[in-house]
């Protein structure tokens, strides 16, 4: 039925032939009204009566461009094609269910040049819609044209395909956006995780440094207290010796205040050890213990963390896939053969054997020497 409908389409109005239908000498069919419109456009100076040319003339077939010569009857002298008219009647009598329902057409725009003609064809050369008269006699007579319905369907199909492609592209772009958002969330989670691990590693390093700090400062404090104890003991011995000498001096002064020579000699003789001998012994401090030179020095606890500082400044993330195995750590256990040195990241702290104070001797002079 679609093929039959195409065969019943007038090449001028692009609609089903309207009776009466005339057949041209070239065997092409036209609506008589359309043939009359073409004839009038081709012969504008011929006299007309009631809108119809009454004298002979000529025009060209819109399908094959064959020249049609009319007699004095004009288009009414053309033979009617009764076969086509009968086929049209049979086609129109077909039930509506057997052929597609005709589309409801909105008011078609009219041609600006031929104001009474509807725009029913499309000029492929100029890419504009136009009317049949423009194709036959107007500015588009040398152009390639096509039915406006076919061009409409073609462009509508292209637009539909383009919209479908754009919708598909939009869906893909939306998928990419969703993937990027998911990537941002994953980056946030992974960054928090790695940041927590970095902070944990640094906290562990702080703990190690704090433990080493407490241990090393404790050793310095222990030696300080040990030296303080030794110095305090030595100070007490010198204070006792000074007190003893003071008592001897006071006794000597009291003896010297005796005016009687006999009494003076008796007192000096009766005093144990004689004052002069006792004064000489008390004045001799060579037997008292003395502090060695540099005893107050604590330079043997000097540390040098220059190498460790460079190592700390060089701390960075591991670039290899396999994390480097950490060293065994600090070995500071005291045992047999311990030399008093501690290792902190490769730095030697301290040197030499541990401090051993000189034993404190017994006081040289007893407090009861003057008794």
UniProtKB/TrEMBL annotation:
Disordered as annotated region, ranges: 346-371
Domain of life of the organism encoding this protein: Eukaryota
Protein name: Tripartite motif-containing protein 54
GO CC terms, sorted: cytoplasm; microtubule; nucleus
Keywords associated with the record: Coiled coil, Cytoplasm, Differentiation, Metal-binding, Microtubule, Muscle protein, Nucleus, Transferase, Zinc, Zinc-finger
Source organism: Electrophorus electricus
Name of the gene this protein is made from: trim55b
Its job: May bind and stabilize microtubules during myotubes formation.
Pfam families from the UniProt entry: zf-B_box, zf-RING_UBOX
An example Gene Ontology biological process: cell differentiation
């Amino acid at each position: 039925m679609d093929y039959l409908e195409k065969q019943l389409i007038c090449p001028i109005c692009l609609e089903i032939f309207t009776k009466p239908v005339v057949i041209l000498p070239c065997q092409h069919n036209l609506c008589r009204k359309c043939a009359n419109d073409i004839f009038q456009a081709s012969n504008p100076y011929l006299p007309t009566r009631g809108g119809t040319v009454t004298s002979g003339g000529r025009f060209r077939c819109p399908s094959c461009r064959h020249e049609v010569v009319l007699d004095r009857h004009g288009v009414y002298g053309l033979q009617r094609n009764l076969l086509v008219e009968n086929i049209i009647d049979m086609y129109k009598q077909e039930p509506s269910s057997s052929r597609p329902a005709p589309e409801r057409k909105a008011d078609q725009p009219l041609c600006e040049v031929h104001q009474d003609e509807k725009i029913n064809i499309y000029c492929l050369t100029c890419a504009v819609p136009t009317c049949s008269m423009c194709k036959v006699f107007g500015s588009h007579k040398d152009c390639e044209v096509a039915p406006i319905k076919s061009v409409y369907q073609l462009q509508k199909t292209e637009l539909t395909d383009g919209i479908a492609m754009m919708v598909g592209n939009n869906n893909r772009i939306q998928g990419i956006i969703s993937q990027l958002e998911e990537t941002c969330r994953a980056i946030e989670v992974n960054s928090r995780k790695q940041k927590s691990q970095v902070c944990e590693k640094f906290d562990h390093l702080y703990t190690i440094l704090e433990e080493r700090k407490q241990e090393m400062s404790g050793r310095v404090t222990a030696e300080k207290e040990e030296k303080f104890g030794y110095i305090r003991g030595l100070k007490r011995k010198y204070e006792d010796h000074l007190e003893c000498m003071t008592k001897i001096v006071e006794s000597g002064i009291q003896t010297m205040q005796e005016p009687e020579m006999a009494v003076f000699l008796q007192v000096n003789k009766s005093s144990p050890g004689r004052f002069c001998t006792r004064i000489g012994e008390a004045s001799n401090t060579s037997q008292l213990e003395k502090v060695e030179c540099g005893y107050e020095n604590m330079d043997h606890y000097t540390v040098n963390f220059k190498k460790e500082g460079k190592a700390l400044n060089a701390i960075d993330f591991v670039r290899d896939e396999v994390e480097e195995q950490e060293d065994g750590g600090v070995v500071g256990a005291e045992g047999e053969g311990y030399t008093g040195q501690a290792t902190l990241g490769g730095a030697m702290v301290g040197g030499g054997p541990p401090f051993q104070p000189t034993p404190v001797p017994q006081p040289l002079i007893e407090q009861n020497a003057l008794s």
